DNA sequence: TATGAATGAGCGTTCATTCAT
DNA sequence: AATGAATGAACGCTCATTCAT
């Protein structure tokens, strides 16, 4: 790895850690520099402004989400063939992706929190993350609905929102309450969430 | 109403509005003063510090929640008699409380957002809001479980968290996306959420 | 005088003094604050930015020039009646205005120096000072030319520029060389300049 | 030309161009490096400090003035023989030297402007440029005065200053106003200036 | 030699807070 | 009680300068 890339990585890691704990506005660039063990000045050499640093963080979060976490692998399931069931989608997320979510929870927290206050970042995330996932999800749901598996009274948007907020609530609670991330416990909770949602969303067989 | 109370109300309203939009740290006391149409100095006469103002806001949110929104009325249902069903709890929240939630959504957003970064406020909210509700909810669920109505594989905490995050997700989405609050539409969404949760949580009859 | 006006005057005086000595860019707002015996912060309360302070200085220079130094009194002579001669114009400037020029030489130096590097200020000075004087001067010269007093080979612009640069050169030299301003000596030099210009500009009688 | 000399020339040209436009303090070494198409670091290899670069510029200006523009050729006229008239001095400057002045006006502007704020540079210019010219000019004037050609009421210094400021005013105006340099027009103006000064300085014949 | 990377010192600016009236 | 005036402390950011390769 080049020297510059190494330094940028240090900066980004330090920034994500502190911003996720204190919020963007309460985080001073001097703190980031100290934690990253570099001089404050190169932060501005590389990212121009503090806001530029935040944008880089959100872009990295988008990239990670796209590459490693949700989008591409889930997309494969969602779009591949019709015989994938909602059950498999849940399992895929819960079994395969928890570790990645946990490893990047600070990054994701920063993205989700700051998106509230920065219109440009919100549009970026909507465009790069939310809308693509939603689009594939609709295609997938069309198949499931045609198979008669889904409660027809429910909108796609509500279903997706319930899945997302349900699965995330375990992580979110620990982030807000500043509690440790016990992978076994989180998986146990997510399986209960899955149980609720499967029964709630699918038609009674 | 006394002049002081009148002024305090103006300050609090202005503060809630701006902080809910920009976050606590990004909100300047000078902005609040301008919007409240008072001099910056009396903010500090009344609340000593900016943090004191935030504490007053959170206390007001707790009070509103306790008095008008969730706690006391729901408490009545939850604790009154055993023949109240989960169905009624949902309806009560959805039918009676939406307007109050909508009217106070900025206040609630400030509380929920800032609780992340201020330990003292977090403890206050846990102590005054979350734990009391949770305590009553456990009593209520004990009854429901004894009646054989609840899926025994699900923990109380998961169920409560799903209800809360599910019902709030409609409001939250609009807050984050800066969309208008259409009461009819929100009620429609909440009824779908109720449908999912009822089926998901209760035992198949 | 109000308290605010008093403070603004202190700031402006200090700023003019230091900027005239070191130039705008080399002058630190902290220095100005120390010399003015006020806190750095109110400079920005009153003038928003350092550039805003410079603009205030130039505006003050324009005002002083208009009110006290050149424009209005000279305008009176230039436009009043045709029987004012070039000789009287010179005398008026030399006799009556030297003290005012000397008293405000730092202010004028700042204006003339910084106008080079700030397009907005340049346009302001052209619009408020140079063009009005030039306009009146043309009217005056028309009369003098019609009386057959002026060398017809010379353009108005060249004549005015020679008068201005000639009369100012005594002051300018002392400013650049950081020499003391001896009023008697300056008046002596100006009278020589007048002698040169009168002979040079007017037709041989 | 050696590679180093080539690089130094690029740096100096870039520096003169930018400093003449924005002033020394407002000019960043990084800008100079970009315009000169070299790395910022070698500026400091060659000139040690930014001030060292400015000193090099002023020294180059002195050298150019001495070698090519004013000093040596004028010196030749001034000191060679007594039968050179003021008229010839003017013509020499106006006819032969305008192009050189125009080609180097940025260099000269930097020298004249920065001399105000740097005592060491001021002394250098006084010692190398102003005083030598003035010394020769006095000798020349002595001859002219002995021939009864010069108005005895005028001091040498005033006369020299009027010549310098008069001839330069055409260039100066265009520099300050950021106007194009039209050689024909400038020459026309200078001839008018010469006309004024000749009549003004010499005794009526 | 030449340069990309890095930095210390300092600047303009902000903002919660205090004080005199 | 209420405010205009003032400020200390810090923050984001800049830039001439150095260093390692």
Automatic annotation (TrEMBL), chains A, B, C, D:
Keyword vocabulary terms for this entry: DNA-binding
HTH tetR-type domain location: 5-65
DNA-binding positions: 28-47
Protein's name according to its UniProt entry: TetR/AcrR family transcriptional regulator
Organism of origin: Fusibacter ferrireducens
